[in-house]
């Protein structure tokens, strides 16, 4: 049995070596694709091409007796690596005029990410921070765009401290709230203004499939090149009003971060055994625990600022607190009928999204289980 098993394993090793060789060749071709896209100013992420290719490979896999999901998993992982390879080849510069990119707060993590992207696209980037703010007038004199990427609690103050900008210079910010910063920029600068919110952290390897929200301020035709530049980087640009953005962020950021924070506080005060929780967790709970732990691995000041950035956030959290109490009372009374009634009402409200989320979460659950030590 040992001889037979070793023989089979040797053959598998040979196939693995052949797979590695094919992957290397594929990445070489991807690098060439990146050069062509850079030359012609094409985005690194092409949703139509990706969708068509995956559908075709799934069909071919099924015809060959191979699980289609297996092929899609492999290809999606390869494509993620491909986007990184294409990212390193640089990008076409959209803006044809003169002027530099000034990033206020460029020494922060998000600032460094966009400094790299603008530099790869051929722009001259200047960093304006606390140590050289006294040079602001000189540094913005030739600016094509000034980007504010500083902590939320300093954004309005920094915008108001800016010197007069060139008439056609774009003024924008990366703040996770939009109404107040956008109005402050409109009051400060008479030229083109747009509010931006990158919906990702600074640790992303590239912008492929990453969402950047933009809220119109003034003179859309003059800041359109900036939107197009970000699309070339692979980002998905989503337009929305500042008020609707802030309403959505109350749910997406403030309430979600608050519930993770509260759950973490409860784990700590209950002195839960994390090692045992991880060992006994299902994939779904492991993911939930990962998201809570991820929060506490980051800057507490950032999350305090996000959660407490508006009265709207506080009111939403208060509503959640009230409903949480109502549901606690329900289970304290052992009222299963009311529990089921509320459950069915929410199920109906989710509609088709419930089944969609089950399907989308399956790949995440498989990954969580694969990563189990």
Automatic annotation (TrEMBL):
<dbReference type="InterPro" id="IPR008927">
    <property type="entry name" value="6-PGluconate_DH-like_C_sf"/>
</dbReference>
<dbReference type="Pfam" id="PF20463">
    <property type="entry name" value="PDH_C"/>
</dbReference>
<dbReference type="InterPro" id="IPR036979">
    <property type="entry name" value="CM_dom_sf"/>
</dbReference>
<dbReference type="InterPro" id="IPR003099">
    <property type="entry name" value="Prephen_DH"/>
</dbReference>
<keyword id="KW-0413">Isomerase</keyword>
<comment type="pathway">
    <text>Metabolic intermediate biosynthesis; prephenate biosynthesis; prephenate from chorismate: step 1/1.</text>
</comment>
<keyword id="KW-0057">Aromatic amino acid biosynthesis</keyword>
<keyword id="KW-0560">Oxidoreductase</keyword>
<dbReference type="GO" id="GO:0008977">
    <property type="term" value="F:prephenate dehydrogenase (NAD+) activity"/>
</dbReference>
<dbReference type="InterPro" id="IPR046825">
    <property type="entry name" value="PDH_C"/>
</dbReference>
<comment type="pathway">
    <text>Amino-acid biosynthesis; L-tyrosine biosynthesis; (4-hydroxyphenyl)pyruvate from prephenate (NAD(+) route): step 1/1.</text>
</comment>
<keyword id="KW-0520">NAD</keyword>
<feature type="domain" description="Prephenate/arogenate dehydrogenase">
    <location>
        <begin position="99"/>
        <end position="361"/>
    </location>
</feature>
<dbReference type="InterPro" id="IPR036291">
    <property type="entry name" value="NAD(P)-bd_dom_sf"/>
</dbReference>
<dbReference type="InterPro" id="IPR011277">
    <property type="entry name" value="CM_T"/>
</dbReference>
<dbReference type="InterPro" id="IPR002701">
    <property type="entry name" value="CM_II_prokaryot"/>
</dbReference>
<keyword id="KW-0827">Tyrosine biosynthesis</keyword>
<dbReference type="InterPro" id="IPR046826">
    <property type="entry name" value="PDH_N"/>
</dbReference>
<dbReference type="InterPro" id="IPR008244">
    <property type="entry name" value="Chor_mut/prephenate_DH_T"/>
</dbReference>
<dbReference type="InterPro" id="IPR036263">
    <property type="entry name" value="Chorismate_II_sf"/>
</dbReference>
<protein>
    <recommendedName>
        <fullName>T-protein</fullName>
    </recommendedName>
</protein>
<dbReference type="Pfam" id="PF01817">
    <property type="entry name" value="CM_2"/>
</dbReference>
<dbReference type="Pfam" id="PF02153">
    <property type="entry name" value="PDH_N"/>
</dbReference>
<dbReference type="GO" id="GO:0004106">
    <property type="term" value="F:chorismate mutase activity"/>
</dbReference>
<keyword id="KW-0028">Amino-acid biosynthesis</keyword>
<dbReference type="InterPro" id="IPR050812">
    <property type="entry name" value="Preph/Arog_dehydrog"/>
</dbReference>
<keyword id="KW-0963">Cytoplasm</keyword>
<feature type="domain" description="Chorismate mutase">
    <location>
        <begin position="1"/>
        <end position="90"/>
    </location>
</feature>
